[in-house]
Specification:
By secondary structure, this protein is α/β, with parallel strands linked by helices. The protein is built from 28 helices and 16 strands. The strands form four sheets. The protein has a six-stranded mixed sheet with strand order 7-13-14-3-15-16, sandwiched between helices. The chain has a five-stranded antiparallel sheet with strand order 2-1-4-5-6, covered by helices on one side. Strand 4 and strand 5 form a beta hairpin. It starts with a strand and ends with a helix.
Amino acid sequence: MIQKLRLLRSIGQFDAVNTGANFDLRKLTLVYAENARGKTTLAAIMRSLATGESLPITERRRLGATQAPEAIIECTGGPPPAIFQNGAWSRTCADVLVFDDAFVDKNVYSGMDVAAEHRQNLHELIVGAAGVALARRVDDIAAEIRDHNRTLREKSDAIPVADRHGLNLDDFCGLAARADIDETIKASEERLRALQNVEAVRTTPEFSALALPVVDFAEIDTLLGRTVADLDAAAVEAVKQHFAALGQGAEGWVGTGMRMGPQGAALTPDGDWPFCAQPLSESALFGHYRAYFGQAYTQLQADLAAAVIRVESALKGDALAGFERQVSTAMERRGFWSPLTAVPEVVIDTTGIATAWQQARDAVLAAIRSKRADPLTAATLSDDTRAKIRAYQAAADNVATASDSLTGCNEAIRRVKEAARTGSPATAETELKRLRATKNRHTPANVTACQEYMDAKAGKEAAEADKVTAQQALDAHRAAAFPNTLTAINTYLSRLGANFTLVNITPQPTPGRPSCVYRLLINGHEVPVGATAATGNAAFKNTLSAGDRNTLALAFFLAALEQDPNRQNRVVVLDDPMSSLDKHRRMQTIQEIRTLLPRVAQVIVMSHDEHFLFEVYDRVAPHPGGNVTDTTCIVVGRGTNGSTIAAWDIESEKLGRHDKRHALLTEYVTNGTGDRLKVAQSIRPHLERYLRVACPDKFRDGEMLRDFRNRARTAQQNGAPIISAAKFTELDQLVEFSNDFHHDTNPAADAATVTDGQLRPYVKRALAFVAV
């Protein structure tokens, strides 16, 4: 509740007003003020107290004031009181709700139009504080998501596009590390190259084995050491001396001769040698020849000749050239296959091999030939020859090793051929890009960048999930609030006497603040509400009168209050809830205030119409035991400098009005002057005031004239009349006539007409009635 207005300084008409501290504001507080005295300023101060916004006060800073606006108000939540100083409140009283022109301008219409902002504010009014909090939560999360998106863009920009090799950010950051990434990339590159050269892969052979010719040098060495075992040394010496005497090549041609006539088969019949016809029977040397060139000797020479052939055949020049061609072919194939699969680097020094080949061949052949020249002398390979043989054999071993390395790749080459036969270059290229992206993903820079990106993305996804939850809660709240509010609005429109209703009031999810749309139903026709109605078409501004628009605004306010779960704690401030445009709903407004009072914490009614406040006082203020309770009446009146606040003796004011009415009625009867409609409207309240004074124990405070008449009728029927039967009949007739000129008994009272001939007798009778 608002308990006291302790100080109002430099605000509007209030220069330095502290008289409000002298009285308490109770559950029902009535504030009377003439126009321009500060009633609207009070409403603005109370709205500022509710919202904490300073503008309603600061924009009303008193002209010429040397001090800044200040207010001290005792209200719920204290002590201490709420203090407005230096442009801010020390605390607020959020339970205060104000209905005034500012409410209408903000939530319903401005001028004659309903703008988008009005529908946005109306949406907030319908969903209430809980719905506004839900909508604000959705908006806050949406703003959070926008922040996440900005961060996400920054983090994504930190990851080079080239590093991703065509992958999107999520896929790129999701790539798992691989320990064998370099080897896998290499294999993938090879596979792609194979697929891009599929015909060459299909037709290029595998590796063939490489080998240097195999020569059994040990066998040759053994052969060189052989001799003819059955020749004695004397024979051998004699033959050799003879060969030496014969000259170079003697052993050869002698041996040939001996073979031409083996065992003497070619001698003459007399046993003579055919070349000289000399007898050989007595030649000791010929016997030595027979032993020397015997079977063992012949076999040895044959073996040596065969060895020469084997060595020359194996290590001939053509064979060396052929080997070099094989090496060249192997190197070409390696050059082709090595980009497609793992092929070891091999080095085959063909120049060195050729040298070792030729040197070993020549040295061995020389050794054999030397042996052939002296077959009976055991020989052996020289150290130099052996070194050359070792060089050749080392070369052969190197070639064998290189050959094994190359032919060992043939299985992999067969897999390459098979993959090239069945694979797709596009698929292989995609796989390679993904592998390269995988390697890039796990560089130190990208590890950090991806983690930051994934953290930002997780934050955004969490916010989006929160928004879905918040939106669902808001939608559920709207689903209940809008139908209930529509029903409540139409109920209040009906009770306030409106000739239109609302249809299809629905929320509208617009960018930024949510809004709502609705239609008016007037005489069975729907009229859309908006600020953009086409010229000449039915619209809000040309289908509702000013009074209708005010009625709609009040219905909105009351309907929102009806749906407010915190209604019992609300302080409701009504600033001119019924203006001169709303006379047709005067009684309905008073009845709604009466209905509202027990349902809220406090009702403050402010008006420049004292008669309206008289009626609110009489019909709304609590009257337990016939005495008005829990009601405060104050007046904002003219002071020495601006306006002041004082207690208002409404009872005395009402009595003073009775005297004025009596003078009005008397003047009309006597001189025929005055407004006939106003005179006719004065008859009933004049009778009512008279009876309150004349029958104080029977006409209780807070009751209407109707209540007194019903009590008097019952008393008369029970034989204990309050007034005489004749006077009661007169009262009934006078009230029946006067009811035609009051809205609570005749909605068309403003249009009622009365002639002097009709009115004057009733005025005379009324004056006679109160004269007794």
